[in-house]
């Protein structure tokens, strides 16, 4: 049996150690430079203030229902309504007339670039479906994309949706340079956006699974080969040179190596194991629609501008049938207007929020928890990390339903921050905790987190590189010829 352990570990190592070394090196890069994205902060920072006079017609006909999630923003320097459509990209309406905007052509794409970076020379490069910096599935509804190069200090590429005309992604020169040796190879993106696309998911899953098995076998062998009493060489390990480094480093960092590879597998949600629970009814949270008392958009803007505050984007939100407008300024500060009373509010009524959440699953018991500090399941991350752009405001209202599903709501705006099932919370442990060590005692005490992540990543890299060297020496032609000669001579 031992012999088969050695053989399986050896040949899996020969096949996979180069991948492992690549994953560890690129993983260290990703700790500090993430895949390009347009964060909410960047989006708001590039919007002009909404004008009060002559800005906007009523977003819907008199007496009609207002759609929940309606947004008033700016595209190409002009105010627009973004009308949400389930399963599709939002419909763009001219905010002054309420008429649907026309097709997005090159001229409108360049206007969006001018709004994003006023004064920066912009060069329209191409209309593309996908390239190295636009693999995210979140962009699917916006494709094809206009790729525009900005000749500014950051050497940015920006991508404009051909469906809405809005900038949906930016990638600086620094981000692109580091991503070639970071995310792009870590996530095997050479297999994306081309003829190999159909095999990308399965390739990542099976490589990660095989590497996990290889790591487990290596740990077993490492323990079996370690002696309390020293070998003749004076070492507790029977190996020399690179093999000894491989053995000892594997014993020290091997468990974390296994955790990282296995959690990388879990990040792919293999075979849909974390996404089988039904979601709660968002429509029930919104309630039955009705016309708001306040429909004059100019008056809404004037009420929000008290004290010289300048909103750049508004979002209409319906909760329990009542309408609220959440406004954001260019630095991400928010104000909320109750359209029933016309008053600014610091927080939506507690009873209204709890009743709306309970309506999402009326047959189940629900417990409410008001968080004033981040916890194991709700915490902020650095903006460049995978989900670091998502806001984690406090206080936060969490509802726990009897079947194990949770809902999290921002009481300041009424926004649904997320839903989770028991399976998704298991995924949080198996992926986010084991892969990124998203654990508050570490995250809140940097550089302790950095020392932990970089230190053990270097250990994993040494295990992998030593495995590559051992594998090369095993397979090199000269060694095979000597081994064959020895067998013949024997």
UniProtKB/TrEMBL annotation:
<feature type="transmembrane region" description="Helical">
    <location>
        <begin position="204"/>
        <end position="224"/>
    </location>
</feature>
<feature type="transmembrane region" description="Helical">
    <location>
        <begin position="245"/>
        <end position="266"/>
    </location>
</feature>
<protein>
    <submittedName>
        <fullName>Sodium:proline symporter</fullName>
    </submittedName>
</protein>
<keyword id="KW-0472">Membrane</keyword>
<keyword id="KW-0812">Transmembrane</keyword>
<dbReference type="Pfam" id="PF03929">
    <property type="entry name" value="PepSY_TM"/>
</dbReference>
<keyword id="KW-1133">Transmembrane helix</keyword>
<feature type="transmembrane region" description="Helical">
    <location>
        <begin position="12"/>
        <end position="35"/>
    </location>
</feature>
<dbReference type="InterPro" id="IPR005625">
    <property type="entry name" value="PepSY-ass_TM"/>
</dbReference>
<feature type="transmembrane region" description="Helical">
    <location>
        <begin position="451"/>
        <end position="472"/>
    </location>
</feature>
